[in-house]
Amino acid sequence: MRLGALGDFLADSGLGYEGAALAFAGLLALIAAAYFHTRISHTLLFWIAFILTRPLGATVGDMLTKPHANDGLDLSRITSSAVIAVFIIGCIALTSQAAGSHPGTRENH
Known about the structure:
Blueprint: H1 3-37, H2 42-65, H3 77-95
Helix pairs in contact: 1-2
């Protein structure tokens, strides 16, 4: 099964596009919580999160572009791309960080 098809499967199973997107976003939130609060391999958690972004993106893309009759927002590809671009730029702006020191090094004062 293709990973994008997993998003379609969840959406078509009764969750709809919004429900499927929320399910994948919830799984990603659990992965983030595991990253900060468990000793599970960060590499493993990264790859799980990386894999989950594919069906999340497919589901959100479908939600934005499918017709209203199919529970979508019926946006054009250009408009949906602009919405996603604004969202990504907003996330980058909200999470930008100042340069810091590496946790394993001592700062010289």
